[in-house]
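Researcher: Please predict.
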Amino acid sequence: MNIAVELIAIVLISVLAIRSSGELFTAIVDLEKILHAEHAVAHDLRRYIEKEEQRLGRLRRLADDFERHSTDALLDVENHLSNPVNAYLLIKRFTNDWNQVIHGEVVSNATEEFLESLASNTAFFPNQEDLNGAAFALLRLQDTYALPASRIAKGELQGIVDSPRMTAEDCFILGNIAYVNGDYYHTIIWMKQALETVLEHNDRTINRATLLDYLSFSYYKQGNLLHALNYTEDWLRLEPNHIRAQNNKNFYELQIKENESRTGYRILEDENNVNPRPLSGYKAGVDFQNYERLCRGEQTQVRKDQHLLTCQYKRHHPFLYIRPAKEELVNLNPRMFVYHDVLSEREIRLVKELATPRLARSVVYHKSDSASTTAQDYRISKSGWLQDCDDPVISKMSKKASVIANLSLETAEQFQVLNYGIGGHYETHYDFATNRELSAFEKAIGNRVATFICYLTDVAAGGGTVFPTIGLRLIPKKGSCALWYNLLHSGEGDMRTNHAACPVLTGFKWVCNKWFHERGQEFIRPCKQLESE
């Protein structure tokens, strides 16, 4: 028993060594089954001893695997965790796989002291919700950047070197998460990838018949009866006596005959539309399509005024006499700017240090009730707020933003700092409050007149700021800041400033925002009835 306890300690130390930073780890592992299993093992001690030798051998191999994985990952933690496939597999290891380790290997020699230690050490392990979030992130990256499942499964992502391959089981679990959430489009993609992995690499981590079962039903739900029938027939070749498969085959054949009888022609397979991506609501519109295209770096429209764009040093304030602002005009109408080398390494480091303990899930205002906020899937990030009084450096940064934007800080908001997680994004939105949302801001400060956003990191791939209406994409560059006006001179919202934060494909993304409001800007940016005045 002492040897077993020592081995368990090694396993736990290895697990802790590869534990993530805590962004997705929120749950405690269930210990009740461990106690039940321990009690059952005590009734058959001799049998337990025989199995213990086998189990210890498995634990040794498991400890070696944990140690090898963590040692390799800790050589370059940032590079390892910036890969969303690594992040997904890490979370899977300590949700789906870890439960099997606890209930299948560790439980047999547990003691009260070990149980207390286990509860403490696994407090930050991820739960199923975390696994779902990581899976949805991979699916979002796949859609936005038009990535084939085969590339993701092989770890062939931009900016990634030496990525692990996903097993057939890894692909199956990803597809199953989509299936449970009624997403048959992605279910088909990842079950097919799992099936290809089984056939091409003789991967036996998942049963082939199980994959065919999921594929046939998912194709049926996608309205493709012929593919549903074909996969069911493949399934029956493996399990000819499976009752449900036989019933499904009869049902699909009947449905096909009824359709042919009703329409008068034989249904043929349309290879170009065997699994259509379901897009509804605003996602079926041009803005969302342009958003995804811009994120991929595609051109969505001809920008005829590019020859008028300029770069210059700006010395419009005494603060900038010695160190002028490096201004780049990136869009003419509406005018948008990028200022290079605004923040120093010291400022960036301090912002991250101060903001990290304050980060919480980012929220959005309700369209129906702009006085309340909620977390939404179309905004995946964590945010925190920094006040000028937190540190003189923060106060200086606010002053710098005010000088560059040539706007008063009288009604400006605190700095909002954001960190985007796996596939973190924020779909198209406006920074100003629309007519339905005006109560989101007090009348005393008015609407958000301008946005000043600073990039605190370079991003290896993805993570751009895109403006679908005008066809502009800004690529994050560490230390640079972007500026645009959200309101027309009349005070109305400029609908052309509709923008989005593209999902982070690889790497890390930190930004901080400073929003300037209307009040206090009356003499700096006076109202006009016409923009041409």
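Model: The chain has 16 helices and 18 strands.
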